[in-house]
Amino acid sequence: MPIERVGVVGCGLMGSGIAQVVAQAGCQVVVREVSAELIEKGLKSIEKNLQRLVEKGSLSEAQREQTRVRLRGTTSLDELRDSDLVIEAVIEQLPAKKELFATLDKICPQKTIFASNTSSISITDMATATQRPNRFLGLHFFNPVPVMKLVEVIRTISTDPNIFEEVVAFAERLGKTPVRTSDRTGFIVNRLLVPYMLDAIRALEEGVASIEDIDKSMKLGCGHPMGPLTLLDFVGLDTTCYIANVMFDEFKERRFAPPPLLKRMVLAGWHGRKAGRGFYDYTDPQNPRPMELT
Ligand code: CAA
Questions:
Q1: Cα separation of 165 and 184, whole Å?
Q2: Measuring from atom 49 of ligand 1, which residue has the nearest CA?
Q3: N or C end of the chain: smaller count of CB under 10 Å?
Q4: pTM of the model
C-alpha cells in the first residue's frame, strides 16, 4: 500500500517544513499543533515558503493551490486516525514523545507507520510506548527542510525491513535523497556534525581565533555554506546542547560534552538566530554582528 495520507505532529520549524514537502509531493497532509495560534503560525510560514517558490518560478500558481488543498491544520490528534504514516516533530524530550506515541497508538489503526524526526533520541525507546515496534522508525529531515536534500531513515532491531524500504521509497518520492542507518545516537550526520560544532566553541574558548575568523575559515577553507558558529546559531544552541548531552550520556566521550560556554549561553537564553542572539547579534538579521563573548 503506497503512503498517501500523512499526519505530521508539530508545526514548528521542522514540522512545518515536513508538512510542506509532503503536501507538495502529492500526499494528503494533516498537521497538528497544540494550539490554534501555533497552527496559524506554522501554516503562515508554509504559505511564505510557497509564495517564495511561486515568485522564483519553481512552483506554479496551480501547484501552490493544489498543495494548499492537500494541507490541513488541526489541534486534535484524533484527526490523524486515517494516516498511512505519522511523522512526529515535537519537542526533543523523551517523555513528551513517548506520551504522544502511546496516545497515537490507540487512535491509529495497526496499519499506520510511526516515524520520529528526532535528531538524537533513541527510536527503540520511543517504540516501546507502542504496540507496533515493527512499524516504527526514524525519519530525520534537515533544516531548512524544503531545501536540504538529505533524509536519514533509521531502523531499529525491531523495524520490519519491508516497512523500512517503503519509507525509503516515500522519502525518494518527496524529492529527497534517503540514507539508511541504524538506531545509534546521532545517526550519521549528528555523529559527525555535533563534535565538529562543539570543537569550534572550544577553539573560541581557547582563544584560537575570533568568531568571524573561525566561521570564515571553514567557509573559505573547506567550502562549507556556513561556518560552524553561524550554523550553531541556525540549528539553535539549546537544541545542540540537548543533542550533545544525549550523545555524551550514550558514549561518555569528551568530544560529545557541551563546552562550558555553550551551557552558559543556553542558560542565558542566547539560543541563536531564533532568540535574536547567539554567537551573533541578529538585531539586523541581514547583517549579523559577532557578540563579545570571551
Ligand atoms: N526555507 C525555505 N527555503 C530557504 C530557506 C528556508 N528557511 N532558507 C533559504 N532558502 C532557499 C532560498 O530561497 C534559496 O533558494 P534558490 O536557490 O532556489 O533561490 C536557497 O535556499 C539558498 O538560499 P540563500 O541564497 O538565501 O542563502 P544560502 O545560499 O546561504 O543558503 C542555506 C541558505 C540553504 C540555509 C545554506 O546556508 C546552508 O545549506 N546552510 C547549512 C544548513 C545546514 O547545515 N543544515 C543542517 C543543520 S543540522 C540539522 O538540521 C539536523 C539536526 O539534527 C540538528
A1: 19
A2: 142
A3: N
A4: 0.94
Summarize pLDDT for 192-226 with one digit per residue, the tens.
Answer: 999 999 999 999 999 999 999 999 999 999 999 99
* CATH 3.40.50.720, the chain: domain bounds: 5-182
Report the nearest-CA residue for atom 38 of ligand 1: 225
Burial class (CB in 10 A: 0-12, 13-18, 19+), 57: exposed
pLDDT digits (tens, 9 = 90+) for 68-97: 999 999 999 999 999 999 999 999 999 999
Q: What is the CATH number of domain 190-289?
A: 1.10.1040.10
Which atom of ligand 1 sits closest to the CA of residue 143? 50
Ligand 1 within 6 A of CB of 144: yes
**Choices 3.30.365.10, 3.90.650.10, 3.40.50.720, 3.30.420.10: CATH for 5-182:** 3.40.50.720
CA of 162 to the centre of ligand 1 (A): 33
Closest-lying ligand 1 atom to the alpha carbon of residue 52? 13
- Ligand 1 atom nearest to CA at 119: 53
How far apart (Å, rounded) are the C-alpha atoms in residues 257 and 90?
24
Q: How far apart are CA 40 and CA 57, in angstroms?
A: 26
Q: Which residues are catalytic?
A: 119, 140, 152, 190
